[in-house]
């Protein structure tokens, strides 16, 4: 885990907040109300239970986990149709360098997801102190391997490696992450089509589509401008005819800009940065942020929160993705989808 933060978006909420001794009263409350949200404080000693009617809260949730499952089911059907028709099984290769725990978890989840839809997975693990040449060798091995249709180099790479060099080496036909500069360049140009669109931004737009959110002519704000999320998310929204503004770390008064937005995609990496007061009533919120915050009561000792203060924002927005269970599962579903698309293209299978 890169960093662990203590944070909380202190609530100026209209929902009923009850401060209580956690273990004694949770069960009782769970029995008496439809839906609870449990929020631990920084100290970990007390907690707040925010109680509201199940309908008001759940109506707004953009359920990425459920949509991802639907997409995986669609992919499963296509993978077996392809196997039966032409005897080809799509293959995804992942290269993991170093021993970051979060990266290892993502890679494990990707492998499980591949298995669940019938995609063959390949994996190379290299030590933190490996050389760039060793990574390059793995990349070119997979470039030449006909049973591999997608290659993913897990980021971040160790700092002694040149990320650009390595990403450039991935064959553009197998660039299922969509990080090759030629793919990004095509995404940015009118009238051009990339072979692959980066998975996380693609997953965000897919959620908007599947929840029938109008994008054309709307004001969209993307917070963050990274190569892997913010920048391609802004390009995609623009391709969908939104009017797009990008906020980054040097932007002054970001909250004034977000208050104008009909759609916000946040990819910052700052827990609970976007507060309820930043949001226009009725806006649609897509929270890409995955931030670990310490929680002694969680099984892993931490829990994940987004960039958006869910407690506050869900009261103002018309729809919002949760963390976890929002964009994360969609990223993996889009990776599987890109791998299937790649195998179909390589084998000219419709
Ligand atoms: N759900 C998913 O599938 C995925 C989730 N993530 C998560 O998304 C988040 C962002 O990831 P990533 O794009 O890789 O991160 P980066 O660190 O590469 O980029 C963060 C961006 O946020 C901007 N930023 C940082 N602080 C502020 C601030 N206070 N106000 C406004 N902008 C700010 C930075 O601005 P500047 O450019 O000026 O430095 C930068 O553009 C992380 O939490 C990550 O874990 C990432 C990938 C997939
Ligand atoms: N080459 C490359 N491609 C990536 O797409 C890529 C990467 N490198 N490096 C790291 C980021 C991060 N990322 C996530 C994927 C899934 C979840 C995910 O499934 N999250 C679950 C929670 C998982 C948990 O509980 O730990 C959720 O949000 O519900 C999160 C984050 C892909 N990334």
UniProtKB/TrEMBL annotation:
MF terms in GO: methenyltetrahydrofolate cyclohydrolase activity; methylenetetrahydrofolate dehydrogenase (NADP+) activity
Residue intervals of the Tetrahydrofolate dehydrogenase/cyclohydrolase NAD(P)-binding domain: 198-345
Protein's UniProt keywords contain Transit peptide: no
GO cellular component: cytosol
This protein's pathway: One-carbon metabolism; tetrahydrofolate interconversion
Keywords: Hydrolase, Multifunctional enzyme, NADP, One-carbon metabolism, Oxidoreductase, Photorespiration
Catalytic reaction(s) noted: (6R)-5,10-methenyltetrahydrofolate + H2O = (6R)-10-formyltetrahydrofolate + H(+); (6R)-5,10-methylene-5,6,7,8-tetrahydrofolate + NADP(+) = (6R)-5,10-methenyltetrahydrofolate + NADPH
SUPFAM superfamilies from the UniProt entry: Aminoacid dehydrogenase-like, N-terminal domain (SSF53223), NAD(P)-binding Rossmann-fold domains (SSF51735)
Domain of life according to the entry: Eukaryota
Gene Ontology biological process terms in this record: photorespiration; tetrahydrofolate interconversion
Domain Tetrahydrofolate dehydrogenase/cyclohydrolase catalytic: 62-177
Family according to the record: Belongs to the tetrahydrofolate dehydrogenase/cyclohydrolase family.
Role according to the record: Catalyzes the oxidation of 5,10-methylenetetrahydrofolate to 5,10-methenyltetrahydrofolate and then the hydrolysis of 5,10-methenyltetrahydrofolate to 10-formyltetrahydrofolate.
Quaternary data: Homodimer.
Name used for this protein in its record: Methenyltetrahydrofolate cyclohydrolase
Organism taxonomic ancestry: Eukaryota, Viridiplantae, Streptophyta, Embryophyta, Tracheophyta
